[in-house]
Amino acid sequence: MPPSDLYDPEPAQRDKSPAPAYEPPAASSSSDPPDTYHETLAETKRALPQDTKGESSLRTKDEDAEPPPAYSEGYSPLQSFSYLMAAAGGASSIITQVQQGGPPINTIGDVGADETITMDLRGTRFVLSRDELLTLPEFVLLSLFPNGLFPEGHMGGSTDGDAIQVDYDPESLQYMLEFFRKVASSIPSESSPPPSQDGDALSNEPLGGTGRDDSSKRAGIIVLREDLDFYVIPPKADIKQPEMIEVKRAAARALLKQDGIFSGLKRSDEPGTTEAHLIEMLTAGGFNHDDQWGHRAGEPNKAVVCSLALARLRSDIRGNEMGNNAVGMAQKLLLFWRKPARRCWWEGVELDNVEGVEGTLKVWIRRVWTLEMSVIGLR
Length: 379
Fold this sequence. Notes:
5-stranded antiparallel beta sheet, Putative ral stress response protein whi2, alpha+beta
């Protein structure tokens, strides 16, 4: 047996394997390295981490395949409305800057439709089914369940110990539930035509279009929320903290009286501005210029006023009754289905007739609007 076979039991197979990327080219037979060189090289390669940069040709089919994405989103009916994004000014438009992140709240879809969840909202008890919860706007669900998931053991709970403690305004949720239930009761019940699939749930026609019979079985709801943070400028330099707290409470009561939805935007609604475009879109979709907030209340122990307004998306839009631009504005709201968008304004105001304050009270206001569309009747 040749001496090389003592160190390399399979020389034939070794000769057929490709040379590593970093191995120097073979020299002439007269200058071949001794057999101990190959043994040392093999031991060194086994001790070092494997280098795969130059071995793409040796990868298997499984290794060549691209890894699965970290997550995948299900099909959304909004894909059929991609052309509306361009009409709205593209993704760079301030009105269409939609929040794409956040935990998937639809994990409750794995729960049976007949199961319920019990919540305690600041002492008020709510028992809601899974189906009714799924009709609520995404930003409301994320406020009720910040983790995006239901804690185990709370589904179907009926005792006080099973109720989930939620820091959310119960009157705001009650107003929303009553509005959604009223809209749902106005939708005709299913008869002979089968329900449409999710991928065909929203067509390119308005929800009330005459092109499809099942359009009357769906209803869009515009959900508009305002979070108003206010910062009171002390009316005098030597004011004490207890007195300042009372001034803030009086300022909150004065702000609560300003309950017009668009009253805070009137100063900046000149034609061509973002505010004017937003007002035009909302009034074309279902609101009126003189509408008031459906629910408006201050947050406990905070200098915050939260407001909520709901409107059913107009289904009686016709091209001969409204301009084509207005029809496009109403349809544009469908871009916000399950995709809440936010807009922020800063404003300095002077409040008159504030209790305990002589003259006017200067206040800085930060308004945050959250706009989202909900659709009742989707399966």
